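Re: the 476-residue chain
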Amino acid sequence: MKFTQLVGAIAKKEIREIARDGRMRLLGGIVVLLALAALAFGTQQTLRAQHEREHASERAEEQWEGQGEKNPHVAAHYGTHVFAPTSAITAIDPGVSPYLGRAVKIQAHQRGIATFSEAQDSGQRPGSFSVAIVLLQLVPLLIIALGYGLWSLERERGTLRQLLSTGVDRRALLWGKTLALFVVLAILLVPAAIVILGVLWWLGGGDGDTILRLGLLGSQYAIYFGIFAGLTLYASAAARSSRAALVIMIGVWGLFCLVTPRAATELAAALRPLPSQAELARDVAHSLEKGIDGKTDREIAVEAIVEDMMAEQGMSATGMMVDESYLEGLNLQAEAKWEDQVFDHHLRLLDDRIAAQEELVAYAGFVSPFMAMRSVSAGLSGTDVAHHRHFTEHAEEYRKALILQLNEAFAANAGTDGWNYRAGAETWKDAPAFTYQSPGASFAIRTHLVSIIALLLWLLVAFGLAIRSAKRVRVV
């Protein structure tokens, strides 16, 4: 019999034995039902988020355009809100989205930080039940339950000695058992995956980038499941009994999925601590008055910026009388530049510290494949910190452009009215519209390349161990 035929025959035999076990059918059914329940929950959350965003965006636009006659700089203080887009794929993995704000206040003199997160609104811990949680934590348990006895039970029944005495290739046994494990898993999960894809398509996830992200997400989860399959086969072959193999793999699952995530998070927070909100606010307030270096007075710095702006416009050393309102408009623009420098500096430091924490957590993927897959899953779902930062940085660029336009409108049109000048509805309608396009799948791949490499290395290690144990498996 050819090697491939032998592998197929072994796989059929293993599939039949697994199918006969009613406990396995029950366990598989429970996992699938939990995945579908998580999908229903995620869909409901996504639809609610879409509705709330659309309603809030419309209301913000109405309030902005309907604010009546007002001084442009007063309108800049009044400000508006912009909102992060929602994605259909969020129904699979909400990532950190429930913990980070989805709205950014756009106003003068202050860089907005995203607020109105689900966690803030509910006061509870959201996002703990999702399709991703089922795939990350429960499916590995299902794989362990299906595979812990593939070698050890045959040894305990005495059938392994009989098989090997006939000259059956141990490699064929290994790959036959592996194939059986994946076929059973596919029978259980593929129907649920089809339902998930259908729901996402209904939610509006039929664009090319979402389909690409889903394809990449599926491939990475296949690798993740392969890691647990390989480790389970190794434990089944190397352990002295089926019970020992099961206990070992449950311990490995607990280490990977429960212990390491908490330990990695605590270690990252200890090694790369973040400032408290009060500390950040205090540092920003000090820098606004004394500069980033702590030695530059605000008024002197703003005056220097005004002089530079006047020089750029050919107004310095001309002896010309500059309109007071125009000069006031230049002063507002200079203050905005000074404040932008301070806010950009401190929030860049904060982002760098967060990135340093995330880098440490990413390298924890070499200790736990769960950590690597969790990062990749959130990244490809567009719900990680990197995507959140991409949105907030875009919102900040929009804020700068809007405030600059309003200050320029004040400088150009106030004339002798000065602060009594009132702009009409045309000024608000002419303000730049906020548009945002989420980055493509390549952005997620670049961001989480370390985690992807960790998953591939884990897969090699897992099946390296499985192959090694298959060659040395005991028959008694």
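The chain has one domain: 3-273+320-472.
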